[in-house]
Amino acid sequence: MSKLGCIKATNHLRVNLLTQAYNVVQDPKFSWWVESEAADTFQTAYQLVFGISEQALAAHNYLAVSPWEASGENTAVTYPALNDLLIENKLYYWQVRIRDNHATPVNCPNPITS
Q: Tens of pLDDT along 51-104?
């Protein structure tokens, strides 16, 4: 039996290239690093999930969920539908869910502020 790869993307999450992005209400660009503990493991798809608190994300009470994108893209990713939902001076949380070429899902929380 082969060992499944393990993608870790809990670090290096950014909004508009910032670790603490404030007052972002239009066209936020999400980026993350994909790190793997196994050779030949890479991202094949992603989904962005947004909430108004860490508790809301944990309870799957989402503000917005992007569709799964079959893509290895992880830089300057946008979700235009989010523009109508963000309110100035409000804290939001986001996760990027990643699938790798071994079909391993990964969730990665990170706060953003707008």
A: 999 899 889 999 999 999 999 999 999 999 999 999 988 888 888 888 888 877
SS3 57: helix
Q: Which residues contact 46 (CB under 8 A, 6 or more apart)?
A: 68, 69, 71, 73, 74, 77, 96, 97, 98, 99
3-state secondary structure of 80: helix
User: For 16, phi and psi rounded to 5 degrees?
Assistant: 50, 40
Identity of the amino acid at 33: W
Structure pTM? 0.81
Instruction: Give me the phi and psi of 37, to 5 degrees please.
Output: -90, -10
Beta-carbon contacts of residue 25 (< 8 Å; ≥ 6 apart)? 83, 86, 87, 88, 114
